[in-house]
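hey m, so remember when u said the C-alpha cells were messed up on ur end? i reran from scratch. heres the input so u can diff it against urs
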Amino acid sequence: MDQDMQTGTVDTANGLATLTFKRFLPPTTDEVWRALTDPEQFGKWYNATAEIDPKVGGIFRDHSGQFTWYGPITVLDPPKQFQYEHNHEPVPQMPDGAQTVVTWTLAPKDNGTELTFTQSGLTSTAGVSAGTHVILDRLAAFVDDKELPDFMNRFGEVEHLYPLWTAPANK
C-alpha cells in the first residue's frame, strides 16, 4: 500500500473514540523524534506555531488558524514515546471543546522507524481522522526532505476514507 494511503482506524468504547495510525518512515528514530519534539521542526510540518517544553509536566501547545491545542506532557521517553494532553477550549466547531491524549510511539524497524500515533478521548472524529492522515503525510515528507503536501488539497483527497463518528448524546 502506498505510504500516504495508510489509513487510520477508529475504535470506540464507553462513548469515546481512539484514533490509531501506523506508518513506516525511512529516517531513524532519532530524526523522527527531533521532528516531533523540536518546536521549530514540529511547526513546519504541522503547519502551526508550536511550544514544546520537553519534560514530563512541561507544556505542549500548538496554534494553527483558529485552533489552539494545549496540555501537559505526560510521557517523554526519548526516542521512544512522546505523550501529551491535547485539549481545546469550546469553539463553534467544537461546542464542548476537547480533552484528548495524543501518543507518538517510535520503534526502529528495517533501518527506519515504525511510528504509531494514537489520539484517545475523542467525542467526534469530524475532521480529526482525515486531518491526522494529512498531518502524518506531512511529517513523512518533512523527515524525508520532500515537498510537504498542501493541507487542504490533501484533506480533500482523503476525507472520503473516514466515516464520521460522534459520541451518543447524554440522556
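this time it looks ok to me. The CA atoms of residues 100 and 155 lie 21 Å apart. if urs says something different then somethings off w ur setup not the seq
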